[in-house]
Write a structure and sequence with these properties.
With 202 residues, the chain is an all-alpha fold. It has twelve helices and two strands.
Length: 202
């Protein structure tokens, strides 16, 4: 049982670990500190990171996917935002201290699957590319950045996309980045659950 300002939290009950590695992560004080970090904010009205992860895991559970894909998505979900509490957001940004990169470094001793480490590191990259193209109005800069992402993902594009779906359909996140990605990357297979709009926050 972990303690927060609002009382005890049973992370095992909240995140229902299914593998030895998931259980190990929940036993590491450094990891747990990241899970318990967070206050309600735009995109994350739920507050603490573990509550967001719980929503992502619920979305993963709604997909009709092979067991190994489900296992991979769950692991990415566990770790993707857990190191936000250590992220350096001062300007100019030091991207080596982005929470995705911090998560990748943390997971390197546990994973020998380079593609999972890449997705953990780059899980927000499609959103950043969309923001560069539309919020910052720099489409010419966004295009090569998108090509670089797709080249990096290679045959693991679909796994990245499925996580993007499960991550975006939480809290009060806007759907524009996801809609854009689905339009500009025709190679992806959009799951029925996305087409039906059945993925909703829990």
């Amino acid at each position: 049982m972990q303690q927060t300002d609002t009382g005890p939290v049973n992370l095992s009950a909240a995140l229902t670990p299914e593998t030895h590695l998931e259980r190990h992560l929940l036993s590491d004080p450094v990891f747990v500190e990241g899970l318990l970090w967070g206050v309600p904010r735009y995109g994350h009205p739920e507050g603490e990171v573990y509550k967001h992860i719980r929503e992502v895991l619920a979305n993963v559970g709604k997909l009709n996917i092979p067991d190994q894909v489900r296992k991979d998505l769950r692991l990415i979900a566990y770790v993707h935002d857990t190191f936000k509490y250590l992220e350096d957001k001062r300007e100019p940004r030091d991207w080596s201290k982005h929470h995705g990169m911090l998560a990748r470094r943390y997971m390197e001793p546990f994973l020998d699957k380079e593609h999972l480490l890449d997705i953990i590191e780059l899980h927000d990259e499609a959103y950043y590319i969309w923001r560069e193209a539309f919020t910052h109005r720099k489409p010419d800069a966004a295009k090569p950045r998108l090509r670089n992402l797709l080249d990096k993902l290679g045959d693991n594009l679909q796994l990245f996309y499925l996580f993007f779906v499960c991550d975006t359909m939480t809290g009060d996140k806007i759907l524009s980045p996801l809609n854009w990605f689905e339009q500009v990357v025709p190679e992806i297979h959009i799951p029925e659950i996305r087409l039906n709009g059945n993925i909703k926050p829990v």
